[in-house]
Amino acid sequence: MSHMRFRSAVTPIRRSFESRRDRDMRRNQLPGVVETVLAERPSVPMHCLRPTVLTQAAERFLGLFPGQVLYAVKCNPAPAVLRALWAGGVRHFDCASAGEVRLVRQMFPDARIHFMHPVKARPAIREAWEWHGVRDFVFDSMDELAKILEETSGAFGDLGLVVRLALPKGGAVYDLSGKFGAEPDEAVRLLRAARAVAGRVGLCFHVGSQCLDPAAWERALDRVGQVIARAGVPLDILDVGGGFPVSYPDVTPPPLEDFIAAIAHGLTRLNLPAFTEVWCEPGRALVAPAQSLVVRIEGRRGDHLFINDGIYGTLSDAGVPGFRFPCRLIRAGEVAPINELVPFSFFGPTCDSADRMKGPFLLPADAREGDWIEIGQLGAYGTCLRTAFNGFDQAVMVDVSDRPLLETPGYQPVEQAA
Which of 83, 98, 130, 217 has the smallest count of CB within 10 Å of its CB? Predict the structure, then answer.
């Protein structure tokens, strides 16, 4: 008899305050962030989800991209996020684990799930194939190809095999060139091997997360063209990956349309067969603006504010990666206008001195204990990177009606962009 026990290290985020949820249901409308904070006075971090923003982002992306849009579940797997994206038309999901596959299939029986991790555990492949109807798998080595074929019982007609092509190091904020991907010579060999054993074959790549250069996709597609020409294998699938950027206080990317135009230009040069499916895998671009975090100031020391969330919680990207986020102060009982904005750094709640976020984060000079701070653009990777370190893992989530604290060119609703 096995004595193994599975455990969850992080307390699940409570969906909402009961009193507010009931009141909102009666009113049939969502409150704003400030209204919620002043009514509930949260003592733990509060995640503020904007379902309408999510749905509009999905609708806009699907309307612009010339192919299938696969949401990268790893970016934010919260069920409320997935439901809002589904409402916006997303029907394809990029999953990287059996857990993500399981979640999507439980929520959406009709979804099309793609297993996009290039190195997978055998039980995960088998579960995805046999229990959840996953038919598309990414790989970047002969060993992984053999593993997939063994765990899918050598299936041919139903199986889709997609080769991950390596790219040179680029200029994205998060470079993804060091871990996965086959160099062109190997990609040619893998494509030919896949063609002999699968009903559908393809190529995929990833230019890196938060890539600000539309031409990066054109350069990647040129490399794809070289591999196709040498392999002599027609593609059923071409996946241009993710990496589409969003705005931060020190970054304003080109409009989404510029990235779509660059991809379209690169695809035109490839002259792909009419039957080739084109995919992409946005994550940050769909969800980052749609969620913010409200924290409480627990203390102040000069220009350092001690807050009740940090790098071991939702603010991982504000630590070593050094992301700056838009923020605003919320104060109960404020009558006079809050004075000028000055730069602050944050300390998180744990006892680790590394739990520091340099910022700078611009807030009123008189920020003090008991005030709240709303921090925006945290829909991507904030919720899913939380840990239970030092026991600071309590949080709540509420739905709100606000627009994002910072809009990204090409992502806001058409009527606002006009």
Answer: 130
